[in-house]
Automatic annotation (TrEMBL):
GO terms for molecular function: ATP binding; photoreceptor activity; protein histidine kinase activity. Coiled coil: none annotated. Gene3D superfamilies: 3.30.450.270, 3.30.450.40, Histidine kinase-like ATPase, C-terminal domain (3.30.565.10), PAS domain (3.30.450.20). This is histidine kinase. It catalyses: ATP + protein L-histidine = ADP + protein N-phospho-L-histidine. Residues 159-317 form the Phytochrome chromophore attachment site domain. Its EC number is 2.7.13.3. The lineage of its organism: Bacteria, Pseudomonadati, Pseudomonadota, Alphaproteobacteria, Acetobacterales.
Amino acid sequence: MYGILAVSNDSIASDIAPGEADLTSCDREPIHIPGAIQPYGVLLAVDRKDFVIRQFAGDTQALLGIKPRRIAQLSLHSIFAEPVLQAVAERLRDPAATVVPSIQAGIVIPGAASRLDMTIHAQGDLAVVELEPSRCAADGYDPISDVKRMLASVATAENFAACCDAAVRAVRAITGFDRVMIYQFLDDGSGKVIAEDTGQDVDRFLGLHYPASDIPRQARELYRRNWLRLIPDIDYRPAPLKMAGEQPGSQTLDMSHCFLRSVSPIHLAYLRNMGVTASMSMSIVHDEALWGLIACHSYTPRYPGVDLRTALELFAQIFSLYLEAKLKADQAQRRVAAQRVHSQLTTDALQAEDIPAALVGGRVTLLDLVPSGGAAAWVNGRLASVGKVPPVPVLEQLIKWLDSTNHAIFHTQQLGSVFEPALAHLDTASGLLAIASQRRERDYILWFRPQLIETVTWGGQPDKPVEVGPLADRLAPRKSFAAWKQEMRGRSVPWDQADLEIAQGFHVTLLEAVFRQMDTARRERDAVIEHQNVLMAELDHRVKNILATISAVVQLTKSNANDLDTYAVSLQNRIRAMALAHELLAGTRWHGVPLADLLAEGEVSFATGGRVIMSGEPVTLSPRAALPLALVVHELAANAVKHGALSVPHGRIGITWGRDNADNLLLHWRESGGPPVSPPVRRGFGSLLIERSLKQEIGGSAIQTFEPEGLVCHLVIPRDCVTWTS
């Protein structure tokens, strides 16, 4: 779509010998140092210390009224009036090695024929000043109002596809370009036009795919680093970068952030073959990676002013945030649903003698955790599967091959390209997601996806031949962009980020926990059997407590609900809060979690209306402290719902925490307003769990006091298990 982006200098040509050029040759071209600019402006590279001009490009006579021979002897002090010079100095006062571009519109330079727009950035010891004729709209134009209108049209869209359609319509309306598209990069580097708005009698590209070679890796990186790129007229003659005097050893100017940076002649030929005269693109970034582009084409030259470009850049940034929020919300919903399956599978595995059978033959299976066509578990030399998987001999070969790769997590949508035996089983095993234990004899969980046979419509033949033309031994861009259909085989639906995160979570909580228990069982079998009995008893008690908690929530919800709909919504929200709290704890066992977040999940789950009051210093729990404390907090909250302050409408719980002189965490749980409390005749398993969990796991302590007005519990977490923010 955008074509091969190459450099305008010929230094790379020597690296590609005759006959060696292929579709990846342009990946080696340093397009960030083209040595020239587009000639609709002037570039001055100056020393950051004294503002002396070191390099320059463009028609300084026409734009600044200064002959090139003279400008090579000047500094910015000789060119700019004091107000402009002060603005430049203020911007470059930042001591950072890299200063991102900033714009000042409508500046006045003595000798210049008109007002100019200035862009400044810095790289190392050099600052780069780019000047162009000011083309800003008339006084009174408010770019923020345009951005608000564009965002309003996006925000009211019913779904993401409609959102993209609204975005391209809004951009075309404000820019006047003949074609505006949203181009999404796919997993293999190729791209697809997913939204488009065009003028009358303009060819449509919607739905067309374009090969990865059309936008090489280094070009995608420049798009990621720069929100907007403009080529106002492809029929230009590059203005070469010139040295100001003799400067032995001067560095090559990195023009990555230069707005005037010249474009590869091959890319210009590509656009010319498409009939395009001007192009502009805004980047769409997700998770700091280039997700796609908002691409604009015009069949006549277009010079949008910096005010409009600033508005478009701001829109691209906010649209990227909207996209990121939408995608992460969708993934979060999947993770919440997967967490319930995750918990059940872990429970089944902990109770089972045959772990592989438990993972594929229970009420929920591995297929419920990650969407796939088949799954298999290989544990301690035993194999079990569910759904459609390759034959056992192929699975055994695959296990040996995975052993040789030594990956903890491995995924591919083209297994046949790296594991040849899979080519005979594309209908079951084109895609593979595998997680491995860290034991000496590795165990595996495998998910398989079948091949997805689809017909892809390309914008021209994707495997275009190498052509030797007027650009010497270079790849010449294809001249035909007619739809070219190709049947794609041997690839599955790709594994997305949510799939990988869910698998990673299962890898940590199941494989690292259960399989290490198996290793311990070989060395100390009797001790492990006793430990497993304790775990089974604890699990039984946990299930009963969870059911009791849900029952209390149901009753509390019912007593406060006015109608069935309110009752259903309230109950659903409370149960969802419990699931979210469980997901938080599962994640923080390995990454640390703020205490306030852990307690907030519990508070949302068990009470509303300000019945739980919390206060304390910001503190983060270590991974090994988060889980036992979560268990203790759950026991306290469950008991409060069943017997304590939260069992009556006016009961309250106060949770406070701080640190002692040794920086240990002290947490106080105090209930009030509930039924009268008296010491229990006998201690139940919950009390034992509260008192023993912290002590056994991290060397902490828990002391319960049954005061008449309510339960009081004092918890101590050792300082090596917490990090104080202040």
